[in-house]
Amino acid sequence: MIRFFASKLLRAFATILFVVTFAFLVLRVSGDPALLIMGAEAPPDAIAAFRAAWGLDEPLWRQYLSYFAAIANGDLGYSMRDRRPALGLVLDRLPDTLRLMLPALAVKILIGVPAGIYAALHRDTWIDRTTMAFSVLGYSVPNFVLGLMLVLLFAVNLRWLPSGGAETWLHTILPIVVLGTAGAGILARFTRSTMLEILGQPYIRTATAKGVPWFRVVSWHALPNAAIPTVTVIGFMIGSLIAGAVVTESVFSWPGIGRQLVVAVANRDVAVVQVILLFVAGSMVVSNLAVDFLYGWLDPRVRTTRGKEG
Hints:
Helix content is 77%, strand content 0%. By secondary structure, the chain is mainly α.
C-alpha cells in the first residue's frame, strides 16, 4: 500500500516537472517577449535593457535553473506587462473562473449520470436512443460554436440574456450551459456503457434469480460497482476545471483565468503563463491522485495489483 501511494506521488511530481519545463521552453523559443511588449520600433538599447532586466539575455539553461530556484523559494515571477506578482494576478481571476466551473461541474454530474443510468435501464428503447442522440450532439458540437449559437438566439434575437461580461448572475447562464452540455453528454454515454456492463455480470443475474427486488439489485449491486470507473471521468473533469474554461471565457468575454491565459500567451507574458499552467497541471495531478487513492479505498484489488506493478 505504501509503495502504491509512493509511486503515484512520484508520477505526480514528474508530471508537474514535465509541464513546467515544456512551458518554459516553448514560451522562450516561440518569440521574443521584449519585442512583443516594447514593440518592434523601440530603440535597440531599450530592448537590450529590457532583456537584461528580465534575465532574457542569459543562456537558456541559466534561465531554467534560475526559474526553478525561484520556485523553490516561493517566487513565481512578475508579469512583464503589469509589473505585479504573476501569482497575484492569477489568483485575482480565480474566483470568476470558479463561478462558472463549479456550477458547470454540478450540471454535468446531475444531468449526465442520471441520464446514463436511465438509458441503461431502458436499453434499446426510444428513451435510450433519444438520450444517447442528445448526448452525442452535446459533446460533438464545439464549445465556441454552441456559445455563438446561444448568444445569437438568446442575446441578439430574443434579448433575454446578456451576451458577455460578468456583472450579474444572468451573465453566468449561457457559459454554464455551454460548459455543462459537453460534460453531461460524455458522462451520460460513459455511465450507460458502464451500467450495461455491470448489469450483464453473473452476480446481477444471480441476485435477480433469487428474487431480489430489481430496485435493490440496481441500487445495492449495480450502482456501487458502476460508480468506480465513473469516478475516473468525474475526476478528470474536476482536474480540467481551469483548462476547460479557455474557449468559453473567450467567447463570452468572461474575466477568468482562461481568458487571461489567451491574453498572456499572445503577449508572451512568461510568468503569468507559467503560473496558469502550473495551476492547470497541479489541479489535474491532484484530482488524478484523489481518484487513484479513492480507487484503492473503494476496490482493494486495484490497490494490491497496482502496488505490485509499481
